[in-house]
Amino acid sequence: MTELELKYGCNPNQKPARIFMESGELPIRVLNGKPGYINFLDALNSWQLVKELKEATGLPAAASFKHVSPAGAAVGTPLTDVEQKIYFAEDMDLSPIACAYVKARGADRLCSYGDWAALSDVCDAQTARYLALEVSDGVIAPGYTEEALAILKTKRKGGYNVVEIDPNYVPRAIEHKDVFGITFEQGRNNYQINADLLNNIVTDNKDLPENAKRDMILSLITLKYTQSNSVCYVKDGQTIGVGAGQQSRIHCTRLAGSKADNWLLRQHPKVLALPFVDGIRRPDRDNAIDVYISDEYEDVLAEGVWQNTFKVKPEVLTAEEKKAWIATQSGVIVGSDAFFPFGDNVERARKSGVQYIVQPGGSIRDDHVIATCNKYGIVMAFTGMRLFHH
Q1: Residues in Cβ contact with 375 at an 8 Å cutoff, skipping those fewer than 6 apart
Q2: What's the helix, strand, coil split of the chain in %, to 5?
Q3: Could you give the angle at which helices 37-57 and 210-224 cross, rounded to 10 degrees?
């Protein structure tokens, strides 16, 4: 048996704590830092996501995890000039795997604060340089170049968590979990997600382009490793809104949709032109943008807090302007880990530019959900496979 002793479990009072295997060697090596219990939960869940995403798409993949759910996930397609600006990656040399992580983290920069990063490919210097600029707890990858490792070892006063995983490791087919002293046993969720799952298009509109198929696969693999109930919005090879752990499906859809709207609002000309004070920290800039696009900004202006963040008082982004900007969104796909029980989910998703939906199907109201999609010309595919994760 091999094991790694940990400082404590989920909370400081939960001792002793360790990760171990009954037989064989642990498939991971800690190259720097001292990862904790939650760090390893994030690391091992996020690694599975990016490994499967790379296998399904053939593209480098990355994820940004917080509390055992992805804040964002993406494949390594190039960034636009606007994306480089809103992700604070201007004038940076970005490799495909670096692009994947920049987009994964950029999906929801507030939730990615203090994240665990996962990379499907060897971490290179370009990715390490970007990670070095962000507030992050650690990273897992199948390897690191010498230059990347040297950069990462300077982060957090030398204590940044760097974990290497054997990409050829295959876990046992049966997994166990203890709850209240009782052991649960189940088969691993080895269900393979690929384009074959998308053949059952149940709507009148059956026009499903290749980029939408890729984004559907991205959403489904993301949902496979997101705490349920969960809904995921995706556009252009990256998640733009993940709603995790809600008891109600519509609340998942609203939560993820509001994040997708915020992602788009960050690209509004008024946001891009915000006059930040010199030397502002990246987290402070993220927080300021989040407040600026929120409904609370006018109250903040009245309090005069803007003087700590902006050189001059920014013009308000009005509710009418926000609504008009969000209305320009299109080409978004939404995935759900279980069936949509009502058409209200479709109605909400449509407001965030959703034109494609992928979900298991199987509700007694499928006809109503399909009819709602047909009303707006939305393409919907049924996979027949639920993706709960707990």
Answers
A1: none
A2: 35, 25, 40
A3: 160
| Other CB atoms within 10 A of residue 98 CB | 27
Active-site residue identified among 51, 54, 66, 259: 66
In the chain, the amino acid numbered 144 is Y
Phi and psi, residue 217, nearest 5° = -65, -40
Name the amino acid, one letter, at 4. L
389 among known catalytic residues: no
In angstroms, how far is the first alpha carbon of the chain from the final one? 26
Angstrom distances, CA of residue 263 to CA of 9, 82, 92, 186, 241? 34, 12, 21, 37, 8
Residue range 180-232, pLDDT digits in tens? 999 999 999 999 999 999 999 999 999 999 999 999 999 999 999 999 999 99
What pTM does this model have?
A: 0.95
* Catalytic residue (choose from 67, 85, 270, 351): 67
Residue type, 244: A
Kindly name the residue from 229, 262, 322, 345 that is annotated as catalytic. Answer: 229
- Nearest to residue 61, comparing CAs of 226, 215, 248? 215
Is 251 a known active-site residue? no
Mark whether 161 is an active-site residue: no
Active site residue 323: no
Distance CA 386, CA 390 (A): 13
Query: Model confidence over 256-295: pLDDT tens digits?
Result: 999 999 999 999 999 999 999 999 999 999 999 999 999 8
Which is catalytic among the residues 13, 157, 168, 390?
390
